[in-house]
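Example pasted here:
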Amino acid sequence: MNVADRPQCNPEEAAAFICAHWNLSGQVEELPGERDCNFRIDTAREGSFVFKIAHPTEDANVLDLQHRTLECLARESDRPSLFPQVVAALDGAATVVWESREERFLTRLVNYLPGTPVAECGIMSTELLEDIGGCLGDLDRALRRFAHPTMHRVIAWDSKYAFSTIRSRLQYIADPHRRGLIERAVEEIETNLLPLLPSLPMQVIHNDVNDYNLLTDGGDRVTGIIDFGDMVHGYRVCDPAHALAYLLLGRKSWEEIVISVLKGYLTCFPLLVEERAALVDFLHLRLCLSVSMSAAQQVADPDNPYLTISEAPAWEALERLDTGERKSLVEVVCSFTRVLQRTNLEIIAARKKHLSGTLSVAYAEPLKIVRGEGQYLFTDQGERYLDCVNNVCHVGHAHPQVVAAAHEQMIQLNTNTRYLHDNIVEYAQRLTATFPA
């Protein structure tokens, strides 16, 4: 992909096209973008939208991947308003073809999400950082079962291929010191990650939750997560790792940021022990990939300021990681695990004070179970256990059909058998029909 080939369009042309295919009119202004051409349109009555003209090499299946992902988030997320939704054209289509200047582009319209990019926030409060982590955890939890034929596509920003991608672009980093810094970092990261990769869970991930794709209300709450153009089937831990990589840029104190974001993420969606061990390396790897990609893209499109927007603070962060802060970040993640252990001791003390001793706790070192999925239970420390104890195992924890059936029943009625109801009789008949005579 050559970024210099991105679509060329002015606001007047965009406004006319939007009016023709969506019957919307209003003030139109261009937005920054790496490979797509984006416009915001503010209407008088219908609200605001973003008109996106895809890169000419974009595959329609990739856009369908994005659209299906957004539909999944609208269904499965606890905060669906955080994610944009596609606005169908007058003919009902999600994408509309625009033939301009002898080229063919795919276009679409999504609702505009209000907010200020985190990159433009001065001081990030602990509450905001925890909310960022919680939103990321919610996003990954909502997508954990999502699948699409195009999710296995190969893109340069995929961490699965980052080592070869970075090494192929080292030639574009002119400064010998910086080039050597990246070479050392990649070698160390590769050594650390290779033994862990087979055990890391994979799923569809956003893959680019950077500080410009995170929107806030200017205070303590996230208002949106945008730009799903780099989605892949990747290592789940990459979403929080990538977000942290960008959140640390230009900030002096890293420890509070890491702890707060992790606290929010793990409250919503626990990470395995192996994922925590890989977190800092994926964070480091993302920064290496970012500066190497920036160096190569500047050669292809030297006049596009969007391509270098994070370059200077990324190099500063890489220098800090190279001179000892990487070890400190690893220790922060390990320390956070110890905080969780102390919390478990507090829970045990509270149980002894407020619950009957007849309610026993299993194991000499009790487990704090925070999530179940399929045949597994997961602790707050990300350890995965095969469940051979609980009575739900014959259908699996969090089975989608069971959850849906229980949800539908609780909407209507949740009481006991002292009242008459058809369902209990029907259940008894169906159950006893399976018994021997």
